[in-house]
Design brief:
Blueprint: H1 16-27, E1 30-31, H2 43-54, H3 67-81, E2 91-94, H4 96-108, E3 114-119, H5 125-131, E4 135-140, H6 150-156, E5 163-167, H7 181-189, E6 195-199, E7 225-230, H8 231-235, E8 243-246, H9 249-262, H10 268-277, H11 281-305, E9 320-324, H12 333-343, E10 346-347, E11 349-350, E12 361-365, H13 370-388
Parallel strand pairs: 1-10, 3-4, 3-5, 5-6, 6-7
Antiparallel strand pairs: 2-8, 7-8, 9-12, 11-12
Helix pairs in contact: 2-10, 3-10, 4-5, 4-9, 11-13
This protein binds 4'-deoxy-4'-aminopyridoxal-5'-phosphate and glutamine.
4'-deoxy-4'-aminopyridoxal-5'-phosphate (PMP) binds near residues 167 and 238.
C-alpha cells in the first residue's frame, strides 16, 4: 500500500457550506451562508407529513418515486413549460436533486469524456465528473458586461463534448439564463451526441419579470437532456431531501440504473405528504406566490444596504444575492467571510470558494424571515462602517 494514493478526490475537503454552517454554530453567528430558508414550510404540508406518519407510511417508496408525486411533477412541467413527460418512464424521484445529478453524471460520463460547466458553479458537479473519470472544462459564466457569456460556452463545446451542465437560476451568482441562450446552444449542438443536464432547482424563483427558462420547454434540447428540480427549495424543506429528474426515456433508463443502487428510493412519508399537499389550493397558491415572496426579501436586503460600500446587481433569480466588497476589503474574501463570522456574527459564502473572482465577493442567502434579514443588514452595515474607519 505504501505510497499508493487511496483517495479518489485527494484535493477535496468538506464543502464551504458545511464549513461555514459549523462556524456559524460555533460562534452563534447569523447563518446566511448555507442556502436554507428559516421560513417555516406551509402548515398544510407539515400536517400532511404528520398524517402520512400516522397512516403508517413507513416502508420503501417505489424506486422511481411515488406515482402520484411523479404525476404532479409531470403535470408541473406540462403546465409551466408545455413539456410532456411520461411518469412511468421519464420521471424519477431521488434524495434531493443532488442524488440525481450525481447519479446522472455517473451514469452518462465515461472516462476521458469532456464535461463543460460554467464557472463559478455549484460545487457538486466537479467532484461528480472527477469520480466518473471525466474531464471538467470550465468556462466563465459571465462576460465583462455581466451577462451570460454564450461565446465562451460555445467555444468550449465541440463535436465530442459528452455533456454540458447548465444551472438556472444560478447558484452562486443569482443570475438567470437569458432568453435565446438555449436556442443558440441547441443550434450549436445539432448533429452531435452531446447531452445537457439542466439544474433548475430554483426554477420558478425568478425576479423582476425575468422569464422562467427551462430545458424542458425547449423543443429540441429537451430530447438530449435531463432537468432537475428540488422540493426543498420550493417548499422551505431543504432537510427533506426530495428532488426529481425528468428527461427522455433513454436517459432516464440510464439514470435509474445508478439511482437504484446509490439511493434506491427515498423518504416515503415525505413523498406522500408532498403528493397530497401540492395539488391542494394551498399548495398551488404557495408555488404561485414563491417568486414574489423572495423578490420582496431580496429587495428588503438590498434596500437596507443602499448607500453603503456594498455593491450589487440585484439577483435575477433564486435566493442568493452576491455582494461585492471591493470598497470594503482588499484581497481574500475567504479570509474575511471567516473573520466576519467571528467578529461581526454573520456567516456568508465567499465567492472564492467557487472560482477566482476579480473582486472580493460574498454570497448571502435571503431566504430568511424579515427579522433575520434586518439583523443581517445591521451586521453588514456595521462591517462596511468598521472597514471605512
Ligand atoms: N443544485 C443547486 C444549484 C443547488 O443550489 C442545490 C442546493 N443544495 C442543489 C442542486 C441540491 O438540491 P437538493 O437539496 O434538492 O439536493
Ligand atoms: N445548495 C446549498 C447552497 O448552495 C448547500 C447545500 C449543501 O450544503 N450541500 O448553499
Amino acid at each position: 500500500m505504501e505510497g499508493k494514493p487511496i483517495s479518489k478526490l485527494p484535493d477535496l475537503g468538506t464543502t464551504i457550506f458545511t464549513e461555514m454552517t459549523a462556524m456559524a454554530n460555533r460562534y452563534g453567528a447569523l447563518n446566511l451562508a448555507q442556502g436554507f430558508p428559516d421560513i417555516p414550510p406551509p402548515q398544510g404540508l407539515v400536517e400532511a407529513a404528520v398524517k402520512a406518519l400516522r397512516d403508517g407510511t413507513h416502508q420503501y417508496a417505489p424506486m422511481a418515486g411515488r406515482p402520484d408525486l411523479r404525476n404532479w411533477i409531470c403535470g408541473h412541467h406540462l403546465k409551466r413549460h408545455g413539456a410532456q413527460y411520461d411518469l412511468d418512464r421519464q420521471c424519477t424521484i431521488g434524495a434531493g436533486a443532488s442524488s440525481l445529478l450525481f447519479a446522472a453524471i455517473q451514469a452518462l460520463v465515461h472516462p476521458g469524456d469532456e464535461v463543460v460547466v460554467q464557472a463559478p458553479a455549484y460545487d457538486l458537479y466537479g467532484p461528480a465528473v472527477q469520480l466518473a473519470g471525466g474531464r471538467l472544462i470550465q468556462v466563465p459564466l459571465l462576460a465583462d458586461d455581466g451577462n451570460w457569456d454564450l461565446d465562451a460556452l460555445l467555444k468550449a463545446v465541440h463535436v465530442r463534448t459528452r455533456m454540458v451542465i447548465l444551472n438556472t437560476p444560478h447558484n452562486p451568482t443569482g443570475t438567470a439564463c437569458p432568453p435565446g441562450f438555449l436556442d443558440a446552444l441547441a443550434e450549436h449542438l445539432e448533429g452531435t451526441d452531446t447531452l445537457v443536464l439542466s439544474d433548475e432547482v430554483y426554477g420558478p424563483i425568478v425576479h423582476d419579470g425575468h422569464p422562467e427558462v427551462s430545458l424542458t420547454a425547449h423543443p429540441t434540447l429537451r430530447e438530449r437532456g435531463l432537468a432537475f428540480g428540488s422540493f426543498g427549495k420550493l417548499l422551505q424543506v431543504t432537510g427533506w431531501k426530495i428532488g426529481w429528474a425528468v428527461g427522455p426515456t433513454h436517459l432516464t433508463t440510464e439514470l435509474r440504473k445508478v439511482h437504484q443502487y446509490d439511493v434506491f428510493s427515498t423518504g416515503a412519508p415525505l413523498q406522500a405528504a408532498l403528493a397530497s399537499f401540492l395539488p391542494t389550493s394551498q399548495g398551488e397558491s404557495h408555488l404561485n406566490g414563491l417568486a414574489q415572496m423572495y423578490q420582496a426579501k431580496r429587495d428588503r436586503l438590498l434596500d437596507g444596504l443602499k448607500g453603503t460600500a456594498w455593491h450589487s446587481t440585484p439577483a435575477a433569480g433564486g435566493f442568493f444575492q452576491v455582494l461585492d466588497a471591493r470598497d470594503i476589503i482588499e484581497g481574500d474574501d475567504g479570509h474575511w467571510a471567516r473573520e466576519w463570522t467571528r467578529t461581526h456574527g454573520i456567516a456568508t459564502i465567499p465567492l472564492s470558494a467557487f472560482h477566482r473572482p476579480e473582486t472580493p465577493q460574498i454570497r448571502v442567502c435571503f431566504a430568511k424571515e424579515n427579522a433575520t434579514l434586518d439583523a443581517a443588514v445591521n451586521k453588514l452595515c456595521q462591517i462596511a462602517a468598521d472597514h471605512a474607519r
